[in-house]
Write a structure and sequence with these properties.
With about 200 residues, the chain is of the alpha/beta class. About 30% of the residues lie in helices and about 25% in strands.
């Protein structure tokens, strides 16, 4: 996949996520479970993809809720699940972005869970996205505000031992699409190939 195509694909995925979130936003509250939030956003994205009035390029995308990890020692139903994947069929191999989502709420859902062994570390340790150059962490914040959780993620990545030793860059503030403000980007070293992680924080208060 060429760099321009990769950038275009990444931007389209961000656009679909932003549109899906916008549609679902009125149903997202501070008490909803992570799986329910992801489902509502994913269903909204799927509706957008299948809407004949949507840009034609969207028809080449599809969304997969809770896809199973393909590599590793686990087989069948024992394979781990991600939260979401978005794939495009315009070229072969089909580019794909994998998503892991976590609630962010005080008390009860600290940034340590977002960064830990069932969150960001799954990408860093290659449990998720072993053959991918990029991945997405979704943070559904249900208390406090966006800057609060941005700072928590930045300080956590730079201070948590297993993340700090693999951290090559960031997290830094970026803007891929204006409809998703407060996004962060980090780069992590791994055994096979480094991975860039987009940290997208969605207001669910």
């Amino acid at each position: 996949m060429t760099v321009p195509y990769k950038r275009a694909f990444t931007k389209r995925v961000h656009e679909l996520l932003a549109k899906g979130y916008s549609v679902a936003r009125s149903d997202l509250t501070s008490t909803l479970e992570e799986e329910v939030i992801t489902e509502k956003i994913a269903f909204a994205i799927d509706d957008i993809i299948n809407d004949p009035n949507s840009p034609s390029i969207y028809s080449r995308f599809y969304v997969n809720i809770e896809p199973r990890v393909r590599h590793g020692n686990r087989t069948g139903k024992r394979r781990k699940r991600l939260d979401l994947a978005l794939k495009c069929t315009t070229s072969v191999p089909h580019p794909e972005l994998l998503f892991e989502a976590k609630r962010l709420r005080a008390p009860g859902h600290p940034v340590g869970t977002y960064l830990g062994k069932n969150g960001l570390l799954c990408f860093v340790t290659e449990e998720y996205g072993k053959e991918s150059h990029t991945g997405v962490m979704l943070g559904y914040f249900q208390s406090n505000d966006l800057p609060h959780w941005q700072n928590k993620i930045i300080s956590g990545c730079q201070g948590k031992h297993k993340l700090k030793t693999a951290l090559l860059m960031g997290p830094i503030a970026i803007t891929v699409v204006p409809a998703l403000p407060g996004e962060l980007l980090s780069l992590h070293n791994r055994t096979t190939l480094p991975i860039s992680i987009y940290h997208i924080l969605l207001d669910c208060t």
